[in-house]
Amino acid sequence: MAEKGWRDILPNAVVSMNKGNSRAAGTGRSVGSSRPRATRFPVDERVDYEAAALRGSTYAGNLSTTGMFLRGVEGVLPGTGLVLHLHLRGVAKPLALRVTVRRVVAAQESGIGVEILPSQDAAIELLARYIESEIVAALEGQTPDTPASAEAELHLCLHYLAAGRIARALTSCRRALATPSPTKRACEALAHNLLLEAVARPAARPRLLAALSRVFAAASAFADSRVLRETRAEAQALAAVPSPRAAKRRARKGEDRSATRR
Prior knowledge:
Layout: H1 6-9, E1 15-17, E2 36-39, E3 41-51, E4 54-63, E5 67-71, E6 81-86, E7 95-105, E8 111-116, H2 121-140, H3 147-162, H4 166-177, H5 184-200, H6 205-218, H7 226-239, H8 244-261
Antiparallel strand pairs: 1-2, 3-4, 3-6, 4-5, 5-8, 6-7, 7-8
């Protein structure tokens, strides 16, 4: 069996990715996919679902503001439209959401991955508030320096990266790596998402690349990881690209030299 790369093995329970490829600015290299849309948090929320000839109940295995994974749902094809009624703890009425099936999983934990359709602003806003106030708050309250807290900090880091809260993301990244033995899965997810943000946020790039270096140091035991090898190569190429600020300084120095010669 061929070794899997980062497009294949990044956990869908951790982060929902946009389709398509982007390239590290100025490097001509693909970083594998575009920026993360929203962090998928592990949950166990009841969901009622219905379509033209389908109706049933199940539980969501993960949840974000852009989609979720519904356990055990079968007989549905990608592209099928569903109406969901999501039962959120502490919320009086189920939250109605229109979704489209994006992937069908038949192995191990079977089920379907669904994408929440746009133009449902009120419902998505309520879902975002629930995630922030209930799920994120609970993760932030984990006892530090435990395996559970390391997993929590991984999800918090990815959540804060997607939200553009870089300082909070880097704090959670450091905490996730502070456990005696960070997992291969955690290192791969951190490296991949830090690289995507380093590409997308030139102003924060030095801090993000420094965090990437810490991930690679913590992941030294995972030399077999193609994800980490590819990410390291992309990060090295990106580090060689001058930041916009540095490029402007060079341009100004060139103008000053030209003016002096005149």
